[in-house]
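User: quick one - fold this with NAP bound?
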Amino acid sequence: MAKRFDGKVIVVTGGSDGIGLASAQAFAQEGGTVYICARRKERLDEVLDELGSSVTAVQCDVGNPEDLDRLYAQIRQDQGRVDVVFANAGVSESAALGEIDEAHVDRLLSTNIKGVIHTVQKALPLMGRGATVIITGSGAGSSGFAGLSVYSATKAALRSFARTWTTDLKDRGIRVNAVSPGMIKTPAMDRYLDNNPGTEAFFEQLIPMARLGHWRLHGGLRPLGHAIAVLRAGSKGQKRLHLLAVSATGSTSADESAITLNQRGAKRWGRFA
Ligand SMILES: NC(=O)c1ccc[n+]([C@@H]2O[C@H](COP(=O)([O-])OP(=O)(O)OC[C@H]3O[C@@H](n4cnc5c(N)ncnc54)[C@H](OP(=O)(O)O)[C@@H]3O)[C@@H](O)[C@H]2O)c1
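Assistant: Sure. Structure tokens for the protein plus NAP:
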């Protein structure tokens, strides 16, 4: 039976852990030829076993444009094109106003802003009509959690990129979506909760299901609501979706209903395309 991403070439940045890894697996299971990238080579090697032969891992820091040149040079040589770019790599760390130093700002801007710009821009020569860009946003981009001002600002910027790039790319027939995951207990989230005791209970109060999402269940990857949303955003059938938001519910089923609710909003954005 034909699969949704048969014959498609997909790039997932930050594909060695958390949301990126779950999404890379979902793309591969749907027939895609997937390139994942991340900075730690040993972690990339580790996950390749789990992902199977249709996935290639390339060590790459998205904050370093030369690394991205290497990534796309390899894809150009292997495949000659890119159909889906999932610009997902992101770092989150907290610092309250008064404690923000230059290194904190540089780390967040390098990966979350500069990294996403170059991940998408450097892919463009390989992208044709019908290709898709998906950016990982965050509910933090439109809320005010303590200590997360710089991270939240980077995520607000990404939603802005999605709107503007939709306009920049519409004549080339390339769609742009921003997908904002709910709170999911990935390695990044675990680190954040460890460094901010008491936060998990606070987050749970904000979530209708009263629990954070899990990306691994019984040792295996779990088909996250987020990965499902990413797949939808990347699918050919979703021509009219230009901004897709998944609310911070934290559970797969609630994420899915959030997608359904937000498709109405997405249609509104579609009118600008
Ligand atoms: N988890 C949540 O609840 C949540 C909620 C809202 C939004 N998000 C967003 O979702 C995305 C993924 O988060 P996650 O929770 O899955 O994080 P995660 O578990 O820490 O995974 C992050 C992935 O990105 C890679 N990465 C980080 N910096 C990179 C860089 N400069 N260049 C290339 N790869 C890089 C990491 O590998 P290396 O360290 O080896 O590079 C890893 O593969 C992020 O954009 C995050 O802001 C997450």
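One thing worth noting: Residues 149-169 form the longest helix (21 residues).
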